[in-house]
Write a structure and sequence with these properties.
Elements (H helix, E strand, L loop, with lengths): L1 E2 L10 E9 L4 E2 L3 E3 L4 E10 L3 E15 L6 E15 L3 H7 L5 H5 L2 E2 L4 E2 L2 H11 L37 H11 L6 H5 L7
Parallel strand pairs: 7-8
Antiparallel strand pairs: 1-9, 2-5, 3-4, 4-6, 5-6, 6-7
Length: 196
Amino acid sequence: MFDTRELGRRPGALKRISRSVAAPKDLGIEVIGVREDATVELDLRLESVMEGVLVTGTARAPLSGECVRCLEPLERELEADFQEMYSYPDADDRSREADTGDDAEEEETLFLEADLFDLEPVLRDAVVLSLPLQPVCRENCPGLCAECGARLADDPDHQHDVADIRWASLQGLADAMRDGEKDNAPRDRGDDPQEK
């Protein structure tokens, strides 16, 4: 909660605040986010206006997550800007008098409570909307091998011999002949229940 009492209700009054706060729980998406209790640096500008207090700010926080291509852990710094109007409680009465009929806008209005405002919902929206949806450790990350899961950045020449599936039965026959299992008829005809 942040206090706006010093501003009073004088339009044009201005106050700047810099504060470090602990990150709330679940500040992020599945693959990347701000760890709970990590330090979030806030630079805020509170400006008193006729309807309430206009809060403009920047949040800086450390991000932790994993690359969506190679699953390696990654660390980043996030900077998110935001701006929100916190209305005076009696401003709701004034807005009803000049009702425009737009109920959706009315639901999104945030109010000051005893000259205090809660920044968490605004901070959460700003941070989550600033997160990369597909974070990568580097722009050209090759990811993992689709066949064996090996990290391709560690072995750029990694490859598998890709046999044509039409020849797979003959490959099985050749392997059987090499191992001296020439008379293994079910495997040669593909009747082995384990291969299905």
